[in-house]
């Protein structure tokens, strides 16, 4: 099978690529290398540098494929900087939604059967302490990031009526691991690398979220797609626990990287506009399929701190 | 209060404009007149011809306002031709979603407090005979029309976190009345006007949907916005009944316009790709507010057939 990985050189892409390549699939990665790196992927995986938000990328990609068919698209390309998207709505429109739109146009044009999408818990919005299942509505995202993930889901759903045979929408929790390109762990490690004496935290540190290790995430997606029986599937992916606080994360990062650092907290329980302060994910549907993560939030974060510290050479 | 009505010269806009003007508000209509007509609005309502899907419309509109503030935006501009949007996804992207995106950019720029949006039952997708309430998920639209309505909702929801004070999202059922610009009633009347002997129906006529008269729709929106207490509100608007079949509608149109016509049905229970064949709307939330429609689906359709026949001079 030939699989196109859009945004495949970033964080999750290389982890997924290794699993798919090991299963014997032919891969093609498309990435604009805004955060991704060629070096994140094995040399054996062909890579095209292309910005999928640009009009014209559909024709360019079709031409680059030279008539070679694509069976599956895994769409992982997106803006991952939520505050940047709150500041300028064009960022998420372009990097998250228009990439989806163009990949669907390509799918229609060249007859791609299956479309997998990296969606997000951010599509739900802020539900406080209520457990968030896939059956919950209305979906009221509080960031343009979440909005354009939801817009992408919607467009993919419509495409599954028109021309796709299968659409798999995975709503990611916070995912941790390497190669880290963004996120709270990388931020903390990099801040400490700059100033080993002090770690400044956005918000008061009480924000609590679940974290999944990227290896578990990839495993869950492959497990679920192999068992999907419906044309469309929407699936929350996450650990079973209610997560850990930002305060606990800050303490663990300091313990690993710079035990003498003092931690300075900000005000309020939101790190930024668009941040969901507390968040309880229902993953009953995924568990009913028979899948379990190997790590809970604590274990995933601890392992990732170590991996990221190694990546950043601190 | 100064109210901007985007897409205000079409079908619902003029009905809403009359009510808002009667309540003493200053109105400004923006329309690209693709389906709308200047003549649909009273001369006293100022009208700007502008395509809100174009980049640059935000600056142009800001300049046209000459520093005049806008308190509320009612966003009714959209593609209303579902099959056209299935054929070419750019149609709904441009006319439904980009218009929303630009109006939100304008809102941020000039400080609009309140944003009302004409969404659609199409955001839900095809739920068969299950009753569709606002709390239902996941939202899986089956047309690009529904997808771009949902994308618009999502972007508005995010804006309500960032800069809007109030966002009201109204999920319309099938709405009937005049000035009719599209829809099954107008199609049937126009087909008969061309050939009084025969009415061709897309699909087998068993599709069943609820219809609301435009006067009731406008009334429900004004009723609900006056009572909204939350930053975001999502509301199904519709009659209480489960609707009428396309077959019954065809018979009623013929009875009014051309009783001798024979009705020719197509195959299948979908009029087109993206058509939801059956559809049960839950409007408990609206009724709990204390609102009731004056007409059920049958009464709304019968009155509208008469109004549209008059409009089309048959």
Put the structure in a nutshell:
Chain A is 39% helix and 19% strand. By secondary structure, the first copy, chain A, is an alpha/beta fold.
Considering the chains and any ligands shown, give keywords for the structure.
homodimer, 314 residues, UDP-galactose 4-epimerase, domain 1, two-stranded parallel ribbon, 10 helices
Question: What is the topology?
Answer:
Two copies of one chain form a homodimer.
Chain A: E1 2-6, H1 12-22, E2 26-31, E3 47-49, H2 57-65, E4 72-75, H3 82-87, H4 89-110, E5 114-120, E6 131-132, H5 144-162, E7 166-172, E8 174-176, H6 184-194, E9 198-201, E10 208-209, E11 211-213, H7 214-227, E12 232-236, E13 244-245, H8 246-257, E14 262-265, E15 280-281, H9 284-288, H10 297-311
> N-to-C terminal Cα separation of chain A, in Å?
40 Å
Helices of chain A, by number, come to 10
What's the alpha carbon Rg of chain A, rounded to whole Å? Answer: 19 Å
Helix/strand structural class of chain A:
alpha/beta
Query: How much of the residues of chain A is beta strand, in percent?
Result: 15-25%
CATH architecture of the largest domain in chain A: 3-Layer(aba) Sandwich
Helix content of chain A: 25-40%
User: Secondary-structure element sequence of chain A?
Assistant: EHEEHEHHEEHEEHEEEHEEHEEHH
Q: State the assembly state of the protein chains.
A: homodimer
Mean pLDDT of chain A: 95
CATH homology-level superfamily of the largest domain in chain A = NAD(P)-binding Rossmann-like Domain
Biggest interface goes to: A-B, 38 and 39 residues
Quantity of strands of chain A, as a count: 15
Q: What is the CATH topology classification name of the largest domain in chain A?
A: Rossmann fold
Question: Which CATH top level class of the largest domain in chain A fits?
Answer: Alpha Beta
* Contiguous uncertain segments of 5+ residues of chain A: none
Q: How many domains in all of chain A?
A: 2
Which sheet architecture does the biggest sheet of chain A show? 7 strands, parallel
